[in-house]
């Protein structure tokens, strides 16, 4: 007998009820599936079979496929923000003038870790899709990601530089190098070369090259 849905969720409503335990359970299961299989060819029927549910229940809980994709992207962003929050709490041991460079190297060590590849592949897919489908379920994902990362990089700059044009340029370059190196790493698995590139950029930020 198919399971009965419990609590509907209306993502557009500010008064939507808190997610039910079943909603949370299925979202976590679907997130695990997305980390393994990606979102590009996501189909409700094989997803539902894999996580022990049914397309009808997923439609009830998430509204439609776009609603489920939005929920999965929000779930991926929570993992990203959790890392950024931890980074903000532990600024690193470097001198104030070198905190941005230290942060770049610390962030890269996390990005380059093999255990984070599934999350980062999902992030890269969502980032690219949000650029070519700006009005769909992916809307705003790339912009929000850029804003999130620039904010945490800014928090690791000396106060005297943070609000100036040079400070904005420095953190923009840092983010561009991290993002570019990450995409390169995901494409080639060449951790040595990409790590050398990130370390060189960190040295430039310190004024060491």
TrEMBL record:
Keyword set includes Transcription: yes
Keyword match DNA-binding: yes
Source domain of life: Bacteria
Matching InterPro entries: Homeodomain-like_sf (IPR009057), HTH-type_TetR-like_transc_reg (IPR050109), HTH_TetR (IPR001647)
DNA-binding region: 43-62
Domain HTH tetR-type: 20-80
A GO molecular function held by the record: DNA-binding transcription factor activity
Signal peptide segment: none
Keywords per UniProt: DNA-binding, Transcription, Transcription regulation
Disordered: region residues: 1-20
PANTHER family: HTH-TYPE TRANSCRIPTIONAL REGULATOR BETI, HTH-TYPE TRANSCRIPTIONAL REGULATOR RUTR
Protein name (record): TetR/AcrR family transcriptional regulator
Protein's organism: Streptomyces triticagri
